[in-house]
Amino acid sequence: MGRPPIGRTAMSGAERAARHIAKLKASVPVAADDIVTNDIKPATMDVRKNLDAAIARIAELEADLAEWIKAGAGWRELQQQVDAMNTGGMFSRKEYKQIQECLHPDRVVGTPLERKYVEAFSLFGNAEKLLVKREPKLRPAKAALPNTPAEWAAARRATQEEKKRKRAAAKAAKEPKRQLCNHA
């Protein structure tokens, strides 16, 4: 059970809120400095100077950003040109691996050529991205989805039958084969 009302009837929510706000306003002391006047205070002048300085700095930074973006656009164009030139490559993956095997330093262990083979193998390995032709990534073809309820039902039946066949095959693989004994 709640608190009894302060009067004959209980206050509404709006009345309680108004009473609470009035109580808060009465409890906060008002300083002479807080009274708004038309005079500009020295502190306000400092804030105005700081604000003007901040606005000027923002304008400088925006100009720098515009220059950086222009420079970046040139860099992006150059990078696109380099990428366009490097799409081909000289060897297929199989040819590259064959040459790399020929340069492997294990072929000449203990000979004066071993150091040269190690360097050649390392250089050839680092240049793999430039030398090997990029193979297109093959994506599986997307299966067409059914459009009508009848097509959906047929697809569902086909899927259920396929699952039944797989389960039966798995079950048959698990069960041992029964052989009939021929007693002669």
Using brief descriptors, characterize the structure shown.
single chain, 184 residues, mainly alpha, 61% helix
Task: Describe this structure as you would to a colleague.
The chain is mostly helical. Helices cover 61% and strands 0% of the residues. The chain is flat and about 105 Å long. The termini are far apart.
Strand content: under 5%
Uncertain stretches of 5 or more adjacent residues: none
Helix/strand-derived class?
Answer: mainly alpha
**Total number of strands:** 0
Radius of gyration: 42 Å
Task: Write the SSE topology.
Elements: H1 13-27, H2 42-85, H3 93-102, H4 114-126, H5 128-131, H6 149-174
Condensed summary:
The protein is mainly α and 184 residues long.
